Amino acid sequence: MEKFSDSLSVYKNDLENSALRDSLKSLDKLIGGKVKILDWGNSKIAIPLEINVDLPSLGNFENLDIRTTEPIILVFDLINYPVSAPRVYTDRSDFPKSNLAHLYVAVNNRPPAFCYVRGNPDEWYANKRIEDLLIRISNWLHDAATGELAENGDQYEPLRLEGYSGNIIYDYDTILSVVTSKTALVVGENFSIALFEQVGLTNRSTYKFVKLITDKNALATIKEVDEERKKGKEDVSRRKYFFGFILWNEENEIKSEYQVNIPRSFEEFKLFCNYYEIKYEEFEKFVATFKELNEYIYFPVIVAIRRPSQLTGYSSNIEFINLRFKLDSDDVKDETIVNNISIDILSHNQPLTQKLARQISGRKIDLSGRSAVFGCGAIGSKIIMHLARSGQTNLTLIDPDYISPHNLVRHVLFSDNEGENKAEALAQKIRKFYPFEMTGVINGPSFKEGLIDKEETFKTYNWLLDFTASEAFFNKLVMLKSINNNQLASASISDFGNLGILYKEGANRNPRIDDLQVELYSLASTDENIHKWLQNEQLAASSNNLVVQVGVGCNSETTILSDDKISSHASYFSGVLKKEMENLSSQGKIYLNRILDTGDYKIETEIIKVDPFDIFQPVNDSTWTIRFKSGVIKQLTDEFRNAGKIETGGVFVGVCNYKTKTIHVTESIKAPIDSEGNSIHFIRGYKGLPEKISEVETKSGGQIGYIGEWHTHPDGPNFLSPQDMKSVQCHKEETDKLQPPLPVFLSIITPDGIFPYIF
Question: Is 51 helix (H, G, I), strand (E, B) or coil?
């Protein structure tokens, strides 16, 4: 039996790798003698061994020539072992390599190597011993003998190649359609021409498929390529184009054998084509005749081979072998390639698709609807990219701003986008992720003036996402009637960048984003973290030392805020949004991402679920809206019932927004003990009330304060009495003097319900 190891010389140097010496000692014990150490070259040693194989009792699968004792070669990296796992090769020159899938194609006159694990062998070997490797190889040979190497026996395992000189990126099904339809530039030929672009670093070539060349686009494409070649080599916009080729068998010949000798020269290429019955003469003639098509000496060639069944992991039975030719002007003469030019192997990569991105990301996002994204700054750009990278590209990006140099500290874009519109630049980046698909991403500086509050404007959208950090825009979203059927979320950063806040509205916009904001402020009375945050914001504002305040963004050059904090908030928010997009909750929610960096750097998250607010229109002024935090109305009705026929009342605290003409009631303070009431009137006292209101204001950092009054009419009427109107006039004189002034908000409670008034 002829062995490859017989051609290797003995390794004569000392072994300095202690881990390798230990493994060789283990091998000595296993074989009961001294292992033979041979020189594999390239700082590697080879250990020839014989391994026992448990063969099936009824004979090998398809009479495959696997024997009870198989000679193998273990190859160790002298420098990188044990981080680099041993390679394992057959040592039999007559090993049935043409009939096995899980073998690496032989390179550099070496025998084929076993593909003994799925995935990275270095990772597999990280917690294994040399004994475990031998057991694995014995099991591999057993699986080969029983026909169980392939995971799916009905499919064909593609060739396993190694020694790649670069990558080639194309969509398998796109090239497949060229081969199955025999789409040749010249009718009747068995090859087609395609345009590729070289991208990335030049020390490892990567060719990216651009388009197929047809009789309709050939002249325009040649002109496009020439225009790029005219640009200076230092021009960063210059695109490096190559014309590549796709070859196939005209007769649809099927080959089941594995040809493990991939061509490394043109002479070997011709033998390879003859083996697979692929005519290469016209291809050779074309390449030799039109050498000037390619400015560079390298170009890609894809060879199609038909297999007996569908390839594992692919949609057809056609396997592509990807090569790179090196052809210079001296290599061609009289329409032939006269020199034995060198050929390399390229590794194929599928271009990214939205479906693949969703699979890799583990997401099941519904792509039937669109999302409108307002604000493509630091936080917005990162969330947008998180969505896009997970296959969610039905996005309309809205931002009138342009990339400035200082934005690069926190923005997802880079310096090559300086001066570009943020929304447009992001959209372009996303389109390049998925070069062979329509992404659906569009961009614009703003919605057309006058259309933003029309129903048709947002009819096609599922989600509206606000990352503008603009209080004015926040108010505009609050008031829009045309988005009542949309889902709305708004995110911002506060507390000097240490607090990320995302509001997600409830069903039917209740709670609304402003409800959620007021709810968060109201929690300061019981939550020390929120109390400290709002107090810090108030202090910073009063000292004119504000860097990041409630709702304010991070676009200013003077804003002190690191990219890692922005990224932390953005990754949390995008995760939240993806979950909600997959399985929408009906509740309103406040998502908090809190960063603590005064000692150790820590990140905490919190989810606050918010029930719908109770909504009322004032009896006397329908332009205003009163929104009661959940639980307040029950408190009022309980006090009304408990008081019986005696009038009672109290004071409301909350927030008044003149821009949205909304009053939010967060709490009712019971009537002070010096209040007076009987069956026909109620006089609210003062004892202890200023202190209680002051406590609410202090706790909330001034965000929540006195907002109005209420009292009961046990026997009616359902409107203000003359005495009530006198009280209104008195209050009006007082509230008009406040800075800022407050409207007079007065509610009466009767057996028929609650009747609010605004003056």
Answer: strand
Q: Are 91 and 48 in contact (CB under 8 A)?
A: yes
Q: How far apart are CA 271 and CA 268, in angstroms?
A: 5
Alpha carbon of residue 737 to chain centroid: 53
Over the stretch 102-119, which tens digit does the pLDDT of each residue have? 787 766 678 888 989 888
Query: Exposed (0-12), middle (13-18) or buried (19+): which is 745, by Cβ within 10 Å?
Result: buried
What is the DSSP secondary-structure string of 343-368?
A: EEEEEEEPPP-HHHHHHHHT-----S
| Backbone torsions φ then ψ of 123, nearest 5 degrees | -70, -40
| pLDDT surpassing 80 at residue 544 | no
- The share of the chain scoring above pLDDT 70, in percent, equals 95
pLDDT computed for residue 160 by the predictor: 75
- What would the pLDDT profile of 642-686 be if each residue is shown by its tens digit? 999 999 999 999 999 999 999 999 999 999 999 998 988 899 999
**Region of 450 on the Ramachandran plot (φ > 0 left; ψ -120 to 50 alpha; else beta):** left
Contacts with 269 (C-beta within 8 Å, 6 or more apart), sequence order: 263, 280, 323, 343
* Cα radius of gyration (the chain): 37
CA-closest candidate to residue 504, choices 488, 519, 480, 522: 488
Q: Which residues of 654-677 are buried (b: 16+ CB within 10 A; e: fewer)?
A: bbbbeebebbbbbbbeebbeebeb
Distance in angstroms (rounded) separating the CA atoms of residues 347 and 125: 24
Contact, 139 vs 53, CB < 8 A? no
Q: Which residues of 247-257 are buried (b: 16+ CB within 10 A; e: fewer)?
A: bbbeeeeeeee
> What is the C-alpha separation between 710 and 449, in angstroms, rounded?
42
- Give 550's pLDDT tier (boundaries 50, 70, 90): very low
- Specify whether the backbone of 241 is left (phi greater than 0), alpha (psi in -120 to 50) or beta: beta
Q: Name the residue among 341, 350, 363 with its Cα closest to residue 315.
A: 350
CB atoms near residue 505 (< 10 Å): 25
Q: What is the pLDDT of residues 122-157, one digit of tens each?
A: 999 999 999 999 999 999 999 989 988 876 667 887
pLDDT over 60 at 553, yes or no: no
pLDDT of residue 345: 92
Neighbours of 244 (CB within 10 A): 25
Nearest Cα to Cα of residue 237 among 405, 416, 408, 404? 416
* Residue 584, number of CB atoms within 10 A of its CB: 13
Query: What beta strand segments (E) does 530-686 contain?
Result: 588-596, 602-610, 614-616, 625-628, 649-657, 662-670, 676-677, 682-683
Dihedral sign from CA coordinates of 232, 233, 239, 243: positive
Cα dihedral 449, 452, 458, 459 in deg (nearest 10) = -80
By three-state DSSP, how is residue 641 classified? helix
Give the pTM: 0.81
Res 366 pLDDT > 70: no
Choose the weakest-confidence range: 245-249, 268-272, 545-549: 545-549
Query: Which CA distances in Å does 71 have to 90, 103, 106, 117, 190?
Result: 6, 15, 17, 19, 43
Would you state the pLDDT for residue 16?
A: 93
The pLDDT tens digits of the residues spanning 342-353 come to 999 999 999 998
Model confidence band, residue 324 (pLDDT cutoffs 50, 70, 90)? very high
Query: How far is residue 43 from each of residues 19, 412, 446, 755, 757, measured CA to CA in Å?
Result: 16, 43, 62, 89, 89
Residue 502 Cα distances to 492, 494, 497, 518, 662, angstroms = 7, 11, 14, 13, 21
CB 55 within 8 A of CB 66: yes
User: Checking DSSP bridges between strand 164-169 and strand 343-349, what pairing results, if any?
Assistant: parallel
